[in-house]
Amino acid sequence: MCNNGVVPTESSRVRSMNETRDRILDVALDVLGENPDAGMGDIASAAGVVRRTVYGHFPSRLDLLRTLTERAVTEVTAVLTEVNASDAEADATWVEFIARVWPVAHRYRVLLALRRGEYGEAIHGLLGPVDELLADLVKRGQDSDVFAQHLPAGILSQVAYGVVFAIADSDLSNGTLGARAATITSLLMLGVPETRAIALVGDQP
Amino acid sequence: MCNNGVVPTESSRVRSMNETRDRILDVALDVLGENPDAGMGDIASAAGVVRRTVYGHFPSRLDLLRTLTERAVTEVTAVLTEVNASDAEADATWVEFIARVWPVAHRYRVLLALRRGEYGEAIHGLLGPVDELLADLVKRGQDSDVFAQHLPAGILSQVAYGVVFAIADSDLSNGTLGARAATITSLLMLGVPETRAIALVGDQP
DNA sequence: TCTCCGTTGCACACCAGTGTGCAATCTACT
DNA sequence: AGTAGATTGCACACTGGTGTGCAACGGAGA
Fold first, then answer.
1. Which member of A144, B44, B157, B185 lies 3.0 to 4.6 Å from B134 by CB, making a disulfide possible if both were Cys?
2. Sorting pLDDT into bands at 50, 70 and 90, what band is B204?
């Protein structure tokens, strides 16, 4: 008997294995989010699995971290390029970006802490493309006089999304309150006047 | 033979011991600043001393960290209370505060990273008084309509000096450029209009 | 039923850091 | 010269995490 469809209906073995793998990744985000120094054992038990099993899916801790980071980069760049496609002003684009990236930033907030520490360099490297896209957006805003120029675009963008992550990491992180706060605060620090900032955010649903 | 002066002229033994102790503390700031996970051994060799000697002065790693933190708290609160004594507007006070606290913040920038990690809770606790003083200042600014109110004073002050430390930790950290950038950026995020912010900073020497 | 294979449980070696103990050494003070 | 005390060098035990090896279990698929 051959496969009846084009896609070779994954055997349930494979599917359950992928589920395990995904669960480990998901849980790892939570656990590391609470404590960036959590070990493979902590992640394993949180995922309802034995440490040895985690090593079955990810040969090393760095491998797991890399996979998480790649996921994050994929999701963020997707949002960022989509948003950048519009020809709106840079500040409006920024607002839409934060609104859409907020859940993602909240999920992956731990990566900012992971940039320091043992595997920081590897993580940092993978995050590079995001940094560039972000700097481009800020640069565009500076060139059209929408954003302040007291700092070079590269650094300003770093600080700005550092703030977003910081708020995503704080008590406000849940609900729309955090998103609003992060958006307004980052706009302010990008040099957008308060009235304009509030108007822009007010437009958001 | 009794002491000839009121102050019992420290024997040079005691003095050189204190010098060693201070050198360890100073060097620890540098080493930990580059790598918050540096061990007692790294600190010791950087101080030109053996690991065992460090343990002679500080019974445990936590003890060393605590001492560093206490130093930082002392220095910062000194600046903060002094600055707060003036009856200037909150934004002007903030500018003076950043200007004077900048070298201190730069020296102790590692403490922000240390707030997470194994001994984070202890460090965090010691840093409490600084947080309060800072929140008070921001609150004063909000009450007199000088600072924005899109975030509660407690969080806004956290984010604001998070930014200051972030810049103190970046490439700009040296020279007056970093201080200017940190001041303006933090003012912007506190809701001070760009023109006013630049004017305020321009006043500074 | 039998086989494959993800999973488990336990073993181990390895590494890095922490904190302690103690004899030896060096030096400022008496 | 003698002594007290800071420092050294080396020892050790302990902890906690990493990564690997392997036999055994258990369920889905042939």
1. B157
2. low
Please state, in angstroms and rounded to a whole number, the distance separating the CA atoms of residues A20 and A25: 9
C-beta separation of B127 from B115 below 8 A: yes
Q: Residue A192: pLDDT band by 50, 70, 90 thresholds?
A: very high
Cβ of B4 near strand C (under 7 Å)? The reply is: no
C-alpha to C-alpha distance for B156 and B146, rounded to whole angstroms: 13
Q: Does A2 have pLDDT greater than 80? A: no
Q: How confident is the model at residue A5 (pLDDT cuts 50, 70, 90)?
A: very low
Any idea which residue has 């001393």 for tokens? B49
pLDDT of A4 above 50: no
pLDDT-based confidence at residue A1 (cuts at 50, 70, 90): very low
Measured in residues, chain B has a length of: 205
Decide if A194 contacts A186 (C-beta within 8 A).
Answer: no
Tokens of B79: 């600046």
How big is the A-B interface in CB pairs under 8 Å? Answer: 76
Please identify which residue in the block is written with the tokens 């910062």: B76
CA–CA dist B147, B151 (Å, integer): 10
Q: Does residue A122 reach within 7 angstroms of strand C, measured from its CB? A: no
CA distance B134 to B155: 10
List bases in chain C with any atom under 7 Å of a protein Cβ: 5-11, 16-22, 28-30
**Buried b vs exposed e over A105-144: b needs ≥16 C-beta within 10 Å?**
bbbbbbbbbbebbebeeebeebbeebeebbbebbbbbbee
Torsion angle of the four alpha carbons A72, A73, A79, A80, in this order, in degrees rounded to the nearest 10: 140
